[in-house]
């Protein structure tokens, strides 16, 4: 995995069964302002499917970071981002219950465990 906020991360294919709980791993610990549950975050991120390793979304691919109020995001981000500091890179492995729900839901990613690598660029 690449460990620099200046480059798009690469995610190695996971091995073994997908976790059933949220997994939070700091790849780079930031030293800036800390994200709170009420924060709007400015992030670069990459999302891949746990099972296939296929990328389904990436701000890197669009060429610009994005701002989100955390309260508007999937539960895995709402639980996994607070406490992260600006300048950090964090990997979240998010089970379906904290992402887009069980298989057969109304979202193309329903039923999937998702992996996100998130670079926290700023908080408001």
TrEMBL record:
User: Residue ranges of region Disordered?
Assistant: 1-20
Reading the lineage from the top rank, the first entry is Bacteria
The family database entries (InterPro entries) matched by this protein are listed as: PPIase_dom_sf, PPIase_FKBP_dom
Q: Name one GO molecular function term.
A: peptidyl-prolyl cis-trans isomerase activity
Keywords on record: Isomerase, Rotamase
Enzyme nomenclature, EC number: 5.2.1.8
Question: Which stretches are annotated as coiled coil?
Answer: none
**Residues covered by the PPIase FKBP-type domain:** 38-124
Which reaction is recorded as catalysed by this protein? [protein]-peptidylproline (omega=180) = [protein]-peptidylproline (omega=0)
Per its UniProt record, what SUPFAM superfamilies does this chain match? FKBP-like (SSF54534)
Give the UniProt family note: Belongs to the FKBP-type PPIase family.
Q: Which PANTHER family does this UniProt record tie to the protein?
A: 39 KDA FK506-BINDING NUCLEAR PROTEIN, FKBP-TYPE PEPTIDYL-PROLYL CIS-TRANS ISOMERASE FKPA
Q: What is this protein called?
A: Peptidyl-prolyl cis-trans isomerase
What organism is this sequence from? Answer: Mycetocola miduiensis
């Amino acid at each position: 995995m690449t460990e620099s906020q200046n480059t798009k991360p690469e995610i190695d294919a996971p091995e073994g069964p997908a976790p059933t709980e949220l997994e939070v791993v700091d790849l780079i610990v930031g030293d800036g302002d800390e994200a709170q549950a009420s924060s709007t975050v400015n992030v670069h991120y990459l999302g891949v499917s746990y099972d296939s390793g296929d990328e389904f979304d990436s701000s890197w691919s669009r060429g610009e970071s994005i701002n989100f109020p955390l309260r508007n995001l999937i539960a895995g981000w709402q639980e996994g981002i607070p406490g992260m500091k600006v300048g950090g890179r964090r990997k979240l492995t998010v089970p379906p219950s904290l992402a887009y729900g069980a298989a057969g839901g109304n979202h193309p990613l329903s039923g999937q465990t998702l992996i996100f690598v998130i670079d926290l660029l700023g908080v408001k």
